[in-house]
């Protein structure tokens, strides 16, 4: 997997124009543009999709608003800080990319040879989005808390990429797909990169489902019966080992097949979890 981090003036401007204002100066400027150039302003509403698809080849149908943004006092500073955030994300990716790609090969086990474009915006805009783009995806990324933890940031970004890649896979069982992706990326990858278990992290709505899938997830990771206690201690998650038969074949399948296994056996897994006596 390769991530290409990009700053694009039009994308940054579009997000300033259409996302929540992050300062009084910007808000007043936007309101001024809206009052004077309402038609031109409105016409840009879907430009973000065009920019993501066309990248550096994007040419606006009407550049009036964009030029006025470029000429503002605050935009050069805004762009400079966006470029700085791009460098931070690039360095973070470079720091962890070998471990992440090794993890994808060894644990996720599905081809991830694509290049993904990540359009970086100012972190205070707090933007995360994506759109399918030909044979790859293009993302917009810039969150206010990205600088708090480089591991958290890169794990969240990898998780976002994987969710995009699997967005059409078994859509009717989206909850199981999301639960497995969290176990893989938000929990196991984060645990390996940080050196501390992160299995209690994630979407609270998926917590119960992940708890049901957890024993089989460990089998997917290659755990034998004697290894299960070690993992439970590491992750502070307990289950009754005697209720489970180790599915040896799970360690040989990829993430797609593991999701299919969970879907096929979802009723049995649920009943088994309910019958446990710890």
Task: Write a short abstract of this structure.
Helices cover 58% and strands 9% of the residues.
Task: Give me some keywords for this one.
alpha/beta, 278 residues, 9% strand, 4-stranded mixed β-sheet, 12 helices
Description:
The chain has 278 residues and is α/β, with parallel strands linked by helices. The protein is built from 12 helices and 4 strands. It has helices spanning 9-18, 24-36, 38-43, 47-54, 64-70, 75-108, 150-165, 174-194, 207-220, 225-235, 255-264, 266-275; strands at residues 2-6, 115-120, 127-133, 136-142. Strands 1-2-4-3 form a 4-stranded mixed sheet, with helices on both faces. Strand 3 (127-133) and strand 4 form a beta hairpin. Helix 1 (9-18) packs antiparallel against helix 4. The model has no long low-confidence stretch (mean pLDDT 94).
Largest sheet: 4 strands, mixed
Mean pLDDT: 94
Strand content: 5-15%
Structural class: alpha/beta
User: Whole-number radius of gyration?
Assistant: 22 Å
What are the segments in which pLDDT stays under 50 over at least 5 consecutive residues?
Answer: none
Give the H and E element order. EHHHHHHEEEHHHHHH
Tally of alpha and pi helices? 12
Helicity, as a percent range: 55-70%
- Categorize the overall geometry: elongated
Question: Quick one: how many beta strands?
Answer: 4
Strand order of the largest sheet: 1-2-4-3
Distance between the termini: 41 Å
Break the fold down into its secondary structure elements and pairings.
Blueprint: E1 2-6, H1 9-18, H2 24-36, H3 38-43, H4 47-54, H5 64-70, H6 75-108, E2 115-120, E3 127-133, E4 136-142, H7 150-165, H8 174-194, H9 207-220, H10 225-235, H11 255-264, H12 266-275
Parallel strand pairs: 1-2, 2-4
Antiparallel strand pairs: 3-4
């Amino acid at each position: 997997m390769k991530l290409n981090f990009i700053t694009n003036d039009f994308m940054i401007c579009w997000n300033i124009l259409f996302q929540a204002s992050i300062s009084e100066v910007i808000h007043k400027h936007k309101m001024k543009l809206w009052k004077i150039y309402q038609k031109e302003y409105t016409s840009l509403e879907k430009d973000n999709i065009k920019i993501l698809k066309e990248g550096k080849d994007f040419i606006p149908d009407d550049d009036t608003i964009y030029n006025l943004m470029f000429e503002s006092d605050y935009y050069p500073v805004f762009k400079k800080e966006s470029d700085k955030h791009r460098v931070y994300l690039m360095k973070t990716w470079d720091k962890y990319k070998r471990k992440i790609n090794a993890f994808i090969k060894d644990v996720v086990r599905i081809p991830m040879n694509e290049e993904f474009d990540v359009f970086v915006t100012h972190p205070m805009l707090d933007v995360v989005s994506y759109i399918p783009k030909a044979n790859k995806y293009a993302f917009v990324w810039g969150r206010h808390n990205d600088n708090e933890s480089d591991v958290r940031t890169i794990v969240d970004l990898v998780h976002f990429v994987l969710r995009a890649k699997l967005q059409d896979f078994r859509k009717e069982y989206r909850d199981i797909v999301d639960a497995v992706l969290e176990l893989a990326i938000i929990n196991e990858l984060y645990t390996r990169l940080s050196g501390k278990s992160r299995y209690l992290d994630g979407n609270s709505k998926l917590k119960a489902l992940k708890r049901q899938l957890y024993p089989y997830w460990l089998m997917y990771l290659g755990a034998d019966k004697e290894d299960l206690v070690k993992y439970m201690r590491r992750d502070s998650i307990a289950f009754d080992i005697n209720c489970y038969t180790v599915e040896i074949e799970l360690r040989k399948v990829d993430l797609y097949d593991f999701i299919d296994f969970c879907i096929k056996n979802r009723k049995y897994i649920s009943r088994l979890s309910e019958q446990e006596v710890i």
